[in-house]
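Lab notebook: predicted structure, single chain.

Context: the supervisor wants predicted structures on file for every construct in the current expression panel, including those that have not yet been purified. This is the next one on the list. No modifications to the sequence; it matches the entry in the shared construct table.
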Amino acid sequence: MNKNIVSAVVASTILAAGFSASVSAHQAGEIIVRGGVAVVAPNESSDPVATFGEFKVSNNAQLGLNFGYMLTDNFAVELLAATPFSHDVSLAGPGKIAETKHLPPTLVAQYYFGDAQSPLRPYIGAGLNYTKFFDNQFTNNLGGALTDLSLSDSWGWAAQAGIDYQVSKDWLVNASVWYAKISTDVEFKLSGTPVTIETDIDPWVYMVSVGYTF
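Prediction complete. Output recorded below exactly as produced.
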């Protein structure tokens, strides 16, 4: 469903391009601020946890924000931010066993296709993600067997693709998709014995937003 939302927004912007061809966008020196809905969809995998198999991590939607600066008419830098994402962590058998939150600020360098007179500007980007995990807690400790949960922070590469459509001199609509390499060591005690489970989150992030240029 998340992919369908992004696809619908992209299609609508393309159809609308013919009605505002005179609106220019994304010139050197401009600052672009976007806000909207961001959905994190983990593509998780982990080492086996005792006899329960791999961790499963739920999707979550939050307020997404990004801040861009046009270095030239075609090259830019952008920072992705958001309100904290919350995820349920589950195992086969017991089901949900834990909750965690994270913040994933991501800095990318971007290339915008087209020129400053184009109201429709597709772009691609690549850069670095840092993910901070916090508020980690067991919601089902299996009768006291699970204690002392923690998740290590993560550094990894990130990539994105998106499209802006300038609807007026200052306002635009946007659809974008991100991929981030996020790996964490999940540490806890199982019946008093320390355990470390290497876990890859590796989410796709889908975002639809409204932006303003300065």
